[in-house]
Specification:
Chain B: Pfam families: DUF1800 (PF08811). Chain B: It comes from Luteolibacter flavescens. By secondary structure, chain A is an alpha/beta fold. Chain A is built from twelve helices and twelve strands. Chain A is about 35% helix and about 10% strand. In chain A, the strands form two sheets. In chain A, strands 1, 5, 6, 7, 8, 9, 10, 11 and 12 form a nine-stranded mixed beta sheet that branches. Chain A is globular. Among the domains of chain B are: about 90 residues, no CATH class; about 70 residues, no CATH class. Chain B has a two-stranded antiparallel ribbon with strand order 1-2. In chain B, strand 3 and strand 4 form a beta hairpin.
Chain lengths: ~425, ~525
């Protein structure tokens, strides 16, 4: 796959032979040619590299009904209508068990490929969905970073990589992808991920299209800055980047990535059956892109609906069941491809719920919750200690594991990069990645 | 007060105001708007002649019809329950399911009608600022039809926004507390004495009036007690305060104590300093630019407070200000998907855009009317744009400019395609995802039908034959239509070269359509 730089060098100059190429562009390309030499050291995966799939449970997943402290009387008395009985769980220890809507994760745990981190949170938690999501995505509890933790990983460890180093299977870009240089790409459907020209004389129109969607700026320095434009941040761009510069960069990334993604996604047809739920289809697409050989290191998918203020039981169990069945298909698919050893999946949610149920048979915004790490490379088991249900802070669980420690474990143990520059601090690693 | 600009203005400034305070217009509309002068133009936006009820509601959304229908449904439900007593459990279950499915089908169909009704209103209204403000309030006090379910309640909320569009923000906030759609969306109707649900209390402070960080968790807990006891009669859509379910004890919110009910708490919220600046900042960001200078926000906050939270004087100040017309602001805002669509339709002077396609396009572009992703509304600005949505914009423009004769059928919405469902998996929703999949299939079918008979714009009107004799003139005329400002030499040069390459014997409508598509398939066109 071509990088932005290679792409610019070969495609535009080639395709626009009928154009008068302005002097500054030629100078820029000459410089890019030098820059392209560092390609050999780029941190893209190749076809054997490790891959992280980040799965967001959006809305604040109720950790207590996901990883159930079934042996704790305080749990049952705090939740007269919501509590899971002992026969409604899959026991993981003599204290906790999984909600029995998740039989596949239960079997993964028994096989030693599921790490369950208990009591995950951060100091002085914020109960706003939006602020807390932002804190998890930026890995900055002050919530002042304009870049995301995954984006900083791209910037630090994947210099020179293709824009598809990160792919979000969302229509919107996750804040965690916000980067100074390469924020990854978003797509929702490979079939539509291209410029559809139609009509006659297609090539000619597409050539004009290409030139109109290539950033060129007479005022820009000749060192290629207009092409390797900074990007990312809260809403996809950093301070100082004009809207036009931002649009031009995204247009370029779309052009560079679309042809390849379309081609690769069409290559692999899975033989594994997936449900029609959004999360299942997202994971299906991830598996197809992995099978096709994308150089992507981090995929991001989202499973929503966890804001269960009202009549929680049915909706929460249903969501967990959808998650479980989607993961079952996904891991079976990876295994059939022979890619199961290359992939680790990590879940997160912005916060857990209150310990006590509310009047609407639901739960309100709380604090600590659990995270799952799944995959062949994961050292399965329970991590951290389950928070006490009686020693509470304003009705909320106290966290025992900082989520940035989980990120650090994944960054160092799986993506093989020093965590400190990405997380801007030292956080204790768990043994979950071996 | 922000320093004001003079009455005299350029046509570029007029086009800018019409784009931001409305949805742009055709060259003729912009010219007559410009002729009013700046001040009268602003006044015409703020005091439109068009009455609030100028557009006839769909029959089901009218108050009387809706009430009668709710009564009928209650009767039908009672009868169903009675007949179910004699049934086997399986049969009763099936009967209930069929009843619910029928209801869902009706709601879905009406939801699409509601989306079409509002979008057409945006397109044809002579009071564009009012509709732009309804969209602002819909984003500010966001609730989604996916949770609320009953389209009639969403339409009721839409009418509430329209009545208060440029009126008192405080009155509107009191109204939203007792708005049926919002009550269902934030579970207010189930919050009872002793076990309050904090959802509304939190969002009214964080998202509606003060902004994050301007309250404590204790304020939320206390306020939640005051917001108990508001009940919604689902049979007739009326809201009442049930004193028995209301926590009548003393509460302390922002240091003020009393036996508060919901309205009392809202009054306390408006006494907080943050209430004066929160909405003015958002309005500036909505109409002008993100990250406004603090002194500008402070000036607007003073005006807002002095006007007792009336929106109209605030908007007048913004639209008359010098700052609003500065180079940094003009053509430097990323169009929202709704803006992109409505403005494109106006620029292409479409009599009647392909309706089903328009609904589908909203989904693909990331902004569906009546369906914000969560209670914080949509993320604006750069958040509208990523590789996916940018390509989609280009392709939507391709279909609209060329019609079904010229465009190949886009990829079918097969099982691998999750175009709309990703966003639907946003936060705050407790929805039936399986139903979303079926809905997606149906929208896809509608889309295919729409595509078979969309003829595209009337290019004889947009690009009259004599104009086509001279490619440079043709390009300049279309650039004026789509950008309302001269473009950089590179872009103009590319369009001219393309036009020249097409000139040949005849410049047919097909070539004009391609040129329009090319102009819209650019980063520049995404800016307003």
């Amino acid at each position: 796959m071509k990088t932005r730089r290679e792409f610019l060098r070969s495609t535009i100059l080639g395709a626009s032979a009928t154009w008068t190429v302005p002097m500054f562009v030629e100078r820029t390309f000459a410089d890019l040619h030098m820059g392209a030499r560092d390609l050999a050291t780029q941190g893209v995966t190749g076809k054997d590299g490790t891959i992280l799939v980040v799965l967001q449970l959006a809305g604040g997943n109720d950790g207590l009904n996901t990883l159930v402290p079934y042996a704790d009387d305080a749990y049952h008395s705090a939740r007269p209508r919501l509590a899971k009985k002992e026969k409604q769980i899959i026991k993981l220890s003599d204290h906790v068990g999984l909600n029995d809507s998740m039989p596949f994760l239960g079997s993964m745990f028994k096989e030693g490929n599921l790490g369950v981190v208990q009591g995950v949170g951060y100091p002085n938690p914020n109960r706003s969905h939006f602020v807390s999501t932002s804190i998890w995505e930026t890995a900055d509890i002050q919530n002042r970073s304009s870049t995301g933790w995954i984006g900083r990983y791209f910037d630090n460890a994947c210099t020179g990589a293709d824009p598809t180093v990160g792919i979000s299977l969302n229509k919107t870009q996750p804040e965690s992808f916000g980067a100074a240089r390469n924020p990854g790409v978003c797509l929702s459907s490979p079939e539509l991920y291209r410029w559809i020209h139609g009509g006659g004389e297609k090539a000619r129109a597409e050539e004009f299209f290409a030139s109109l969607n290539s950033p060129e700026d007479d005022d820009s320095p000749v060192d290629g800055a207009s092409i390797d434009m900074p990007a990312g941040g809260k809403v996809g761009g950093i301070d100082g980047e004009s809207n036009l510069a931002f649009l031009e960069r995204v247009a370029m990334d779309a052009r560079v990535s679309s042809a390849k993604i379309l081609e690769l996604a069409a290559k692999h047809r899975t033989k594994v059956n997936y449900e029609g739920t959004p999360i299942a289809r997202s994971l299906n697409m991830v598996s197809r892109l992995i099978a096709g050989g994308m150089p992507t290191r981090v995929y991001y998918v989202s499973h929503g609906g966890f804001d269960t203020h009202n009549q929680q039981v049915n909706s929460h169990d249903r969501l967990l069941g959808q998650l479980d069945r989607a993961l079952k298909s996904f891991f079976a698919d990876l295994k059939a491809q022979g890619n199961d050893k290359r992939v680790v999946l990590m879940t997160f949610s912005e916060f857990g719920r209150r310990v006590g149920e509310n009047a609407s048979a639901g739960t309100d915004h709380g604090r600590a919750s659990c995270m799952f790490l799944a995959g062949d490379a994961v050292k399965g088991g329970l991590y951290g200690s389950h928070p006490s249900l009686t020693d509470l802070d304003q009705g909320d669980l106290k966290h025992s594991v900082d989520f940035r420690g989980v990120y650090a474990s994944v960054l160092e143990g799986w993506l093989k990069t020093p965590a400190k520059p990405v997380l801007k601090g030292d956080f204790a690693r768990l043994g979950v990645m071996g | 007060m922000l320093p004001a600009a003079p009455d005299e203005w350029t046509i570029q400034e007029a086009a800018h105001l019409l784009r931001r305070a409305g949805f742009g217009g055709s060259p003729a509309e912009i010219a007559s708007f410009h002729a009013l002068g700046r001040y009268r133009a602003v006044d015409s936006l703020l005091s439109p002649a068009e009455p609030v009820d100028a557009f006839v509601l769909p029959e089901w959304a009218k108050r009387e019809t809706a009430a009668a229908e709710m009564r009928e449904r209650a009767v039908a439900q009672r009868e169903m329950r009675r007949s179910m007593q004699d049934m086997t459990p399986e049969r009763a279950d099936r009967t209930r399911r069929e009843f619910n499915q029928q209801q869902q089908r009706l709601y879905r169909q009406r939801g699409v009608e509601a989306q079409g009704w509002w979008l057409r209103r945006m397109l044809y209204t002579k009071a564009p600022l009012r509709e732009k403000m309804v969209l602002f309030w819909h984003d500010h006090f966001a609730s989604s039809i996916q949770k609320v379910r009953q389209p009639v309640l969403m339409m009721g909320q839409n009418e509430l926004f329209r009545r208060h569009a440029t009126g008192s923000f405080k009155d509107l906030t009191h109204g939203i507390l007792k708005d049926p759609a919002m009550m269902l969306y934030l579970d207010t109707q189930t919050s009872k004495k002793g076990k309050p649900n904090e959802n509304f209390a939190r969002e009214v402070m964080e998202l509606f009036t003060l902004g994050e960080g301007n309250y404590t968790e204790q304020d939320i807990k206390e306020a939640a007690r005051a917001f108990t006891g508001y009940n919604l009669n689902r049979q007739n859509g009326t809201v009442f305060h049930n004193r028995r379910q209301w926590d009548g004890g003393d509460k302390t919110v922002f240091g003020r104590s009393g036996k508060f009910d919901g309205d009392d708490v809202i009054e306390v919220l408006f006494e907080q300093a943050a209430a004066a600046s929160y909405v003015p900042r958002k309005l500036w960001e909505y109409f002008a630019a993100e990250n406004p200078p603090e002194e500008g926000v402070a000036a607007l906050a003073r005006s807002f407070k002095a006007a007792d939270f009336q929106v109209e004087p605030l908007l007048r100040e913004i639209f008359r200000s010098q700052a609003f017309y500065s180079d940094k602001i003009v053509r430097n805002q990323i169009k929202s998907p709704i803006q992109f669509l409505v403005q494109m339709f106006k620029e292409l002077e479409l009599e009647s855009p392909p309706h089903a396609y328009t609904v589908s396009a909203q989904q693909q572009l990331g902004q569906v009317l009546f369906t914000p992703p969560n209670v914080a509304g949509w993320d604006w600005g750069k958040a509208w744009i990523n590789t996916n949505t940018l390509l989609t914009r280009y392709n939507v423009a391709g279909f609209i400019t060329k019609g079904s004769q010229e465009t190949p059928k886009p990829a079918r919405n097969n099982g691998d395609d999750s175009m709309m469902t990703m966003d639907d998996a946003g936060m705050g929703m407790d929805m039936q995802m399986e139903q979303m999949d079926r809905r997606q299939m149906r929208v896809s079918n509608q889309l295919q039908r729409a595509q078979q008979n969309w003829d595209g714009p009337d290019y004889e009107k947009i690009a009259p034959r004599p104009l086509r004799e001279d490619p440079e003139k043709l390009v300049d005329s279309l650039v004026q239509r789509f950008f309302q400002t001269p473009l950089g030499a590179k872009e103009r040069g590319a369009f001219v070269e393309y036009a020249v390459s097409k000139k040949g014997a005849i410049f047919t409508n097909k070539e004009v359509g391609e040129l329009c598509h090319l102009m819209m398939s650019t980063p520049h066109y995404q800016l307003d």
